[in-house]
Design goal:
Blueprint: E1 4-11, E2 15-22, E3 27-34, H1 42-57, E4 66-72, E5 75-81, H2 88-93, H3 99-118, E6 121-122, E7 131-133, E8 139-141, E9 148-149, H4 155-158, H5 171-175, H6 182-189
Antiparallel strand pairs: 1-2, 2-3, 3-5, 4-5, 6-9, 7-8
Helix pairs in contact: 3-6
């Protein structure tokens, strides 16, 4: 599309995130594109498109906003706010946070999760790598790629068994006993 790719920011199991430039608005953005190996798979495409709709519907000051969704040469992508401050994971690599700083971050994330839960969305992959910071050191919740909609069956989109990052999963998610609910997100936040 109109976006100019600048550099790769990160890569996950099914998608890659680039820093890109939007010449129309003269700003940098984060562009998440489904990897080539998956963009012709209907289930993967549906899951990716569902993520775009879920995030776009969760308008909240502490959730990374979606600006655009489209496809280029059959490859779907979504465009989000670019946050230049890195991840919580990177901050933790530099040592522990002060109690005041950790409390401020957890407070923002808890409010974002409450908003998602009020809209029947369970994140299911809350981890330090999915917490991003802006240039003012404000934390934002990102990556709803494996979110579960409480009132909808999602086995056909996410498969069965454990979904998420094992180190941060609640026991019910890890063992696949139950799909997890808002308490699972609370466990991961803790």
């Amino acid at each position: 599309g109109r976006y100019q790719l600048l550099s790769e920011l990160g890569r996950g199991g099914m998608a890659v995130v680039y820093r890109a430039h939007d010449p129309l608005f003269g700003r940098d953005v984060a562009l998440k594109a489904l990897l080539f190996a998956y963009f012709r798979d209907p289930v993967s495409r549906k899951r990716f498109e569902r993520e775009a709709r879920v995030i776009a519907a969760l308008e909240h000051p502490f959730i990374v906003p979606v600006y655009d969704f489209g496809q280029d040469d059959e490859q779907p992508y979504l465009v989000m706010r670019y946050l230049s401050g890195g991840t919580l994971n990177e901050r933790l690599d530099n040592g522990p946070l002060s109690l005041a700083r950790a409390t401020a971050i957890v407070n923002r994330l808890a409010q974002a999760l409450d908003h998602a839960h009020e809209h029947q969305v369970i994140h299911r992959d809350l981890k330090p790598g999915n917490v991003l910071f802006d240039q003012y050191e404000n934390a934002y919740l990102s990556d709803f790629g494996i979110a579960r909609l409480v009132d909808q069956e999602t086995k056909s989109l996410t498969g069965s068994g454990a979904i998420g990052t094992p180190a941060f999963m609640s026991p019910e998610q890890l063992y696949g006993d139950r799909p997890g609910d808002r308490r699972s997100d609370g466990y991961a936040l803790g």
